[in-house]
Amino acid sequence: MNFLIIGDVYSKSGRDVLEKHLKNIVEEKDIDFIIVNGENISHGKGINKNHYDFLKNLGVNVITTGNHIFKVKETLDFIETVDDLLRPANMNSYNIGIGTNVYEFNGKKIRVSNLMGKSFMEHVNNPYEVMDQIIKDDKSDIHIIDFHAEASAEKLAFAWNYDGKITALVGTHTHVQTADERILPNGTAFITDLGMTGPINSIIGANPEEVIFKEKTGLPTKFKPSENEGLLCGVIIKVNEKNKATEIKRLQIK
């Protein structure tokens, strides 16, 4: 099976470049299953119902998120009505929504889990404790994790800890694609960050002018999504008939 996993779709530029290229990628790369991080798809923070439907209409199987999952109030109204929009599993347990689920696809049980790191992030529960509970007695054939975190070392440590116990771990959140894709020694596919699917001429999605103003002055500033040519970022992971990852390749398309 071929899995396409796309990083942080950011606002209109991200939606446009995804809509323009996704169908061709699926056909040319023989993609079976699509996972997209959609936590920034609605104006740079959060996901509303319209943009959830937009991703589903494009053929996306599962939508992962991160610390901005509940920035749009409307999300609270529909997240419990769907089983393919995940929020980080180690968020406050009183939060609604699910952080992991198993999907039956082509005779396989595919688990997708969403977790968030602790370093330089909002408070979350220990991801190792939550992950240990997820994999305990798990009967899925394939398990892919979106680990939404700031620190590259935290993502890598988490992947190494579960190397051989999961199929793949992909990092999100920094909006900058890393060049360290690899298969770890015990067979888990890994990349520190998928990168951002959004405007090229921006500072991680926002207009440079506002970000620079805040950096220079320290004054509170509202960032606005940049609207220019988009770049699609992600990876394609090949999984063999024995449910082992055999290849991970970076993808960048203007």
Describe it:
The protein is 24% helix and 26% strand. With 254 residues, it is α/β, with parallel strands linked by helices. The chain has one domain: Metallo-dependent phosphatases (Purple Acid Phosphatase, chain A, domain 2, 4-Layer Sandwich), CATH 3.60.21.10. The strands form two sheets. Strands 1, 2, 3, 10, 11 and 12 form a six-stranded mixed beta sheet that branches. Helix 1 (11-28) links the parallel strand 1 and strand 2. It starts with a strand and ends with a strand. The relative contact order is 0.18. The mean pLDDT is 97.
Note the topology.
Layout: E1 2-6, H1 11-28, E2 33-37, H2 49-57, E3 62-64, H3 75-78, E4 100-105, E5 108-116, H4 127-135, E6 142-148, H5 152-161, E7 168-172, E8 182-183, E9 189-191, E10 198-199, H6 208-217, E11 230-239, E12 245-253
Parallel strand pairs: 1-2, 2-3, 5-6, 6-7, 7-9
Antiparallel strand pairs: 1-11, 4-5, 8-9, 10-11, 11-12
The first-to-last residue Cα distance is: 25 Å
As residue ranges, the low-confidence spans are none
Main β-sheet, in a few words? 6 strands, mixed
Silhouette:
globular
Structural class: alpha/beta
Give the strand content: 25-35%
How many structural domains can be distinguished in the coordinates?
1
Q: What oligomeric state do these chains adopt?
A: single chain
Q: Number of helical runs?
A: 6
Give the total of beta strands: 12
Radius of gyration: 17 Å
InterPro entries: Metallo-depent_PP-like, YmdB-like
GO molecular function, one term: 2',3'-cyclic-nucleotide 3'-phosphodiesterase activity
Active site: 68 (proton donor)
Keywords: Metal-binding
